[in-house]
């Protein structure tokens, strides 16, 4: 489907993050950054991806599940995309690219609620309260990552990255390892916030 193809294409945007993390780990003089602890930072939790599963779940019907509205999935798709289309490319385009952002997602949910409140209630009943509750934590994480990214942007992330400890030839092996691990971890966290909130797309489009 176009959505699946868009998701596959959107994965390409992670290549610089993944290759950069691997490159930094391989360049390290010690094997510290090649440990499981540090390599796992290259594949972090990303709420921008986690929040999308509720939309997919709302379009799935379990074998033993009964849906009162046979057109529920079609109505959900139609109402969602009509609302995003009215709000323009800043909301619609990232969603089609599987890059969900807190602002666009919030606007889309409000638009859907205003356009068809009964549909929202039907979707919530079909999905179930447990799934809604679990999804809400992913949504809060997405908002938190977005706020953290804005704070970093205000403080000028490039200046911040430049001031991270550097590994000098005069450093002792222990201090060099500590410095490289600190820099690697800090940059991995910044990337986690950036990609996890979908704001990397905004930076690449400039």
How would you sum up this structure, described in words?
- The protein has 206 residues and is mainly alpha-helical.
- It has one domain (2-200).
- Helix content is 71%, strand content 0%.
- The protein is built from 13 helices and no strands.
- It has helices at 2-10, 15-27, 36-39, 47-50, 53-58, 72-87, 89-96, 102-115, 117-127, 129-154, 157-162, 173-196, 200-204.
- Helix 8 packs across helix 9 and helix 10 crosses helix 12.
Question: What is the strand and helix layout of this fold?
Answer:
Layout: H1 2-10, H2 15-27, H3 36-39, H4 47-50, H5 53-58, H6 72-87, H7 89-96, H8 102-115, H9 117-127, H10 129-154, H11 157-162, H12 173-196, H13 200-204
Helix pairs in contact: 6-7, 6-8, 7-8, 8-9, 10-12
Distance between the termini: 29 Å
Gross morphology is elongated
> Into which percentage range does the β-strand content fall?
under 5%
Tally the beta strands. Answer: 0
Q: How many domains is the backbone divided into?
A: 1
Number of separate helices: 13
The share of residues in helices is: over 70%
Rg from Cα: 21 Å
Low-confidence stretches: 164-176
SSE pattern: HHHHHHHHHHHHH
| Average pLDDT rating | 79
Main β-sheet, in a few words?
A: none
User: Pairing-aware structural class of the strands and helices?
Assistant: mainly alpha
């Amino acid at each position: 489907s176009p959505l699946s193809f868009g998701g596959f294409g959107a994965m390409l945007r992670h290549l610089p993050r993944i290759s950069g993390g691997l490159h930094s780990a391989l360049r390290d003089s010690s094997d510290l950054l090649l440990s499981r602890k540090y390599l796992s930072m290259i594949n972090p939790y990303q709420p921008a991806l986690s929040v999308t599963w509720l939309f997919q779940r709302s379009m799935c019907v379990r074998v033993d599940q009964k849906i009162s509205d046979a057109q529920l999935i079609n109505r959900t798709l139609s109402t969602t995309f009509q609302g995003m289309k009215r709000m323009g490319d800043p909301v619609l385009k990232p969603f089609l690219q599987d890059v969900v952002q807190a602002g666009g997602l919030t606007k889309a949910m409000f638009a859907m609620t205003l356009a068809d409140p009964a549909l929202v209630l039907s979707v919530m009943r079909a999905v179930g309260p447990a799934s809604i509750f679990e999804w809400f934590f992913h949504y809060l994480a997405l908002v938190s990552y977005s706020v953290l990214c804005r704070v970093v942007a205000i403080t000028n992330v490039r200046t911040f990255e430049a001031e991270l400890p550097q590994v000098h030839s005069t450093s002792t092996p222990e201090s060099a390892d500590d410095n490289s691990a600190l820099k690697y971890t800090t940059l991995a966290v910044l990337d986690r916030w950036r990609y996890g909130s979908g704001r990397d797309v905004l930076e690449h489009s400039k």
